[in-house]
Design goal:
Length: 333
């Protein structure tokens, strides 16, 4: 079998139709055509004729399959046939616009006579000919490989029922025990990139920790939490309560790294971690959504947390979060 991939030709499709009629196995068809079996699977799946109104005619027909493949390639090449439109799409992607925003703006502006849908833009980004441009870096998730449409895994799989907030011990909800934290992610406007901030608040003392992240990938976010909390004794980092963002899907690393349990709010119920939500509202005075985090260092965030942790709070009897945190940390509360 040749290692150099070439497109399936009409002659290949005619031979494939004959083999399918003879009910030859996929592996044998691949061997006879000198192709990988995955190539044969894809060809049959993509180019088999389906019509609910004509079920008796359903099947693989070489000429029709060739026409379907040619039409699909023409759609994929629309941005290559129209270089001005292609440059406009690339420019907007680099400005951190999503494919949906780009496609919608082309329609609303009415400037370009040629329109593209978001699917065409996604295919342009990930097709073999233009993949070298690295345009996937400008997408919200910056995935190197495209996730198939509608294949997103349900979040219940990432956040099992044993970690629901309803399973969290009452002593945590009643703020009777020190060392239980709430965490959230502060997101900023897309043109400023993927940088974000993890905000963490200790429930009993309201002590705040801010961690700057360069991206929204779960692994690095959890690694930074582990590094920040490792110096604390175990009783000061017993558990964390998050919402169901995919950025917190790597929560098991916290248990392995620092022995901390993780709990997750119910879907669409951010009020179940109201301490950090209210703290984030306070933080937005200093870090509004249009803040460019490129100009904000971790040292700046540490200075901000020191400022907030030294403000007296009514819910603490007008003590400061820093005072209450240190008192609990040294066992005098």
């Amino acid at each position: 079998m040749s290692r150099c991939y070439t497109q399936i030709t009409l002659a290949d499709r005619r031979r494939l139709q004959q083999l399918m009629t003879a009910k030859v196995s996929i592996n044998e068809m691949a061997r006879l055509l000198g192709r990988h079996r995955s190539t044969i699977y894809r060809e049959i799946r993509r180019n088999t004729f389906h019509d609910r109104e004509l079920p008796d005619y359903e099947g693989y027909y070489s000429t029709l399959a060739n026409d379907l493949a040619r039409e699909r390639r023409c759609r994929l090449r629309k941005l290559r046939r129209h270089p001005d439109l292609r440059e406009e799409v690339i420019s907007q992607l680099k400005a951190r616009w999503s494919p949906e925003q780009i496609a919608g703006r082309l329609v609303s502006d009415g400037v370009s006579l040629v329109r593209v849908c978001k699917e065409t833009i996604y295919r342009f980004i990930y097709n073999k000919e233009d993949y070298g441009l690295g345009l996937y870096h400008y997408l919200p998730e910056a995935r190197r490989k495209r996730r198939p449409l509608r294949s997103r895994k349900p979040r219940d799989g990432a956040f099992p029922s044993t970690h629901r907030i309803s399973e969290r011990p009452d002593i945590v909800g009643q703020r009777l025990q020190f060392g239980h934290w709430e965490g959230d992610l502060m997101i900023f406007e897309r043109p400023f990139g993927q940088a974000n901030i993890t905000s963490l608040v200790e429930r009993k003392s309201r002590y705040l920790v801010l961690i700057k992240n360069p991206s929204r990938h779960s692994g690095p976010i959890m690694d930074k939490i582990i590094r920040s909390f490792s110096p604390l004794p175990a009783f000061a980092r017993r558990s964390f309560t998050f919402d169901r963002r995919t950025e917190f899907a790597g929560f098991r690393a916290l248990e392995d790294g620092i022995g901390a349990s993780s709990w997750f709010c119910d879907p669409s119920a951010p009020s179940q971690k109201g301490t950090v939500e209210n703290t984030n509202k306070r933080l937005r005075r200093y870090l509004p959504g249009n803040t460019d985090l490129m100009s904000v260092s971790q040292r700046d965030l540490t200075t901000l947390t020191r400022h907030l942790n030294n403000q007296p709070r009514k819910c603490l009897g007008y003590k400061t979060p820093a005072e209450v945190f240190m008192a609990n940390l040294h066992g005098s509360a």
